Amino acid sequence: MKVNNIELSVQLQPDLPLTMADFYQAQQVFMNIIINAEQAMVEAHGKGKLMIKTRIAGNSIQITFTDDGPGISEENINRIFDPFFTTKEVGKGTGLGLSICHGIVQTHGGHIYAKSEPGKGATFVVEMPIVSDNQISSASCQTG
Ligand SMILES: Nc1ncnc2c1ncn2[C@@H]1O[C@H](COP(=O)(O)OP(=O)(O)OP(=O)(O)O)[C@@H](O)[C@H]1O
Ligand SMILES: [Mg+2]
After folding, report:
1. 2 CA distance to ligand 1 centroid (A)?
2. Among residues 68, 61, 73, 78, which one has the least CA distance to residue 125?
3. Element (H or E) spanning 30, and its range?
4. Which among 51, 63, 83, 50 has a CA at the least distance from the CA of 21?
5. Is the pLDDT confidence value at 144 over 70?
6. Hey, whose CA ends up nearest to atom 2 of ligand 1?
7. What is the pLDDT of residues 65-112, one digit of tens each?
8. Ligand 1: residues whose CB is within 6 Å?
9. What total number of domains does the chain contain?
10. Is the pTM of this model over 0.70?
11. What pLDDT was estimated at residue 114?
């Protein structure tokens, strides 16, 4: 699939186990990551490739987003989840996107991190804990 010069490939592992998440918050996390990747790739070379994959990693469901944009320098990679950290022009980014993602994933008991080889792109990894059917049905009883 190609949208706005971004070639998208999605590889979802079939029959993944369950995790438990607020639908809208999960959507917000994925959208923030995807929009960042799109902006980075389009700004760097007017086009790009985004690969989204899911798989099981230990006790988690792992979702990875790999782009072929400019990547993130070693200096910045430890700061991108900080509130208000942005490399975008004034008025273009608040620097809150990834800090919100980090907060949401953490409240769900998961992890989020980024890897990058500068010049070759960036990979964002979200790991959400696998939960059993029993945990889900008892949680939905509590919340009604
Ligand atoms: N896929 C990516 N490739 C390169 N740099 C990235 C990527 N994703 C995030 N970044 C870097 O991380 C910084 C912080 O991202 P974050 O989403 O928190 O804020 P923002 O995108 O700058 O602003 P906002 O999300 O409020 O529009 C970005 O300014 C950019 O420097
Ligand atoms: Mg952002």
Report:
1. 22
2. 61
3. helix 23-45
4. 63
5. no
6. 37
7. 999 999 999 999 999 999 999 999 988 899 999 999 999 999 999 999
8. 32, 36-37, 40, 67, 69-70, 72, 80, 85-88, 93-99, 122
9. 1
10. yes
11. 98
> Encoding tokens for residue 86?
């942005």
CATH number for 96: 3.30.565.10
Ligand 1 midpoint to CA 88 (Å):
8
pLDDT tens per residue across span 3-17: 789 999 999 999 999
Selection from 67, 69, 68 nearest residue 43 by Cα? 69
The token duo for 67 is 């782009």
DSSP string for residues in 83-135: TT---SPTTT--S-HHHHHHHHHHHTT-EEEEEEETTTEEEEEEEEE-B-HHH
Residue 118 burial class via C-beta count within 10 angstroms: exposed 0-12, middle 13-18, buried 19 and up:
middle
DSSP state of 12: P
